[in-house]
Amino acid sequence: MENRHAIAVAALTLIRFYLSSGIGHLGAGRMASFERWDDVVRQTIIYVDRELAPGQFGDVMEITRRTQANDPEFERLGRLLGALRAVYGTASFTAAEVHSAIGGAWTGVGSSTAVDPRRAELADVIRELTGGRYQGKPSIDSIGRLLTYRRDRLASGMRIVGEHDSHRKSTRWHVESVDSASKDPSATIVPWLRAAIQ
Q1: pLDDT tens-digit series, residues 167-183
Q2: pTM
Q3: How high does pLDDT run on average in the chain?
Q4: What is the structure's pLDDT at 107?
Q5: Which residue, among 117, 40, 125, has the nearest Cα to 86 in the 3D structure?
Q6: Residue 189: what pLDDT?
Q7: For residues 150 and 83, is the Cβ–Cβ distance under 8 A?
Q8: pLDDT tens-digit profile of 101-151?
Q9: Would you say 32 and 51 are in contact if contact means Cβ atoms under 8 Å apart?
Q10: Alpha-carbon dihedral of residues 64, 185, 153, 178, nearest 10 degrees?
Q11: Longest dimension (CA), the chain
């Protein structure tokens, strides 16, 4: 990339132009897990789209939402997060605890045994996410991999977060709601970027 320096200068110039305008947030909400990026890059793109090149770029978050709306994996992730939240609330859990929780629901399919509907939903969505590969219920390791693959991915205003417990040699998971409240963009700019644009 022989033009790398020129591109970086142009990008920083646009960011500085946006921040010095004093307009603040233009786009609704914030991209979860990418708050700093949202404050600097996304808001600059929206500003350029509205003020300098109308209709040329759009809002990255709106484009992302439209793309996710047509993604069946995204819909299943939302169902998984909702089912985990229904079973565990805000409490943490392990893959082994999920394995145990879906046990009766997994084997209870088609039987007259009363099954907690929240656990049945959790078993159903895990069955969908594993593509029905398991005649019996999936192993604890398989459930752990399923959760690990979806770590920090956002759907339905939630994400699954894991923290490794080295003492127990397992990961404790919990589903958290993602705060999309707007903040002053200048308050969250990374220090090197702030220094570069001043």
Answers
A1: 878 899 999 998 643 33
A2: 0.57
A3: 80
A4: 62
A5: 117
A6: 39
A7: no
A8: 888 776 655 444 567 889 889 988 998 888 767 667 788 999 999 999 999
A9: no
A10: -110
A11: 69
Sign of CA dihedral 43, 38, 91, 153: positive
How far is residue 87 from each of residues 81, 82, 92, measured CA to CA in Å? 10, 9, 11
**Residue 63 in this model has a pLDDT that exceeds 70:** yes
Structure tokens at 21: 């305008």
Residue type, 54: P
Of residues 90, 72, 80, the one with CA closest to residue 147: 80
Per-residue three-class SS string for the chain: CCCHHHHHHHHHHHHHHHHHHCCCCCCCCCCCCCHHHHHHHHHHHHHHHHHHCCCCCCCHHHHHHHHHHCCHHHHHHHHHHHHHHHHHCCCCECHHHHHHHCHHHHHCCCCCCCCCHHHHHHHHHHHHHCCCCCCCCCCHHHHHHHHHHCECCCECCEEEEEEEECCCCEEEEEEEECCCCCCCHHHCCCHHHHHHHC
Q: 145: which 2 tokens? A: 């991999």
> Which tokens hold the place of 187?
């308050």
SS3 125: helix
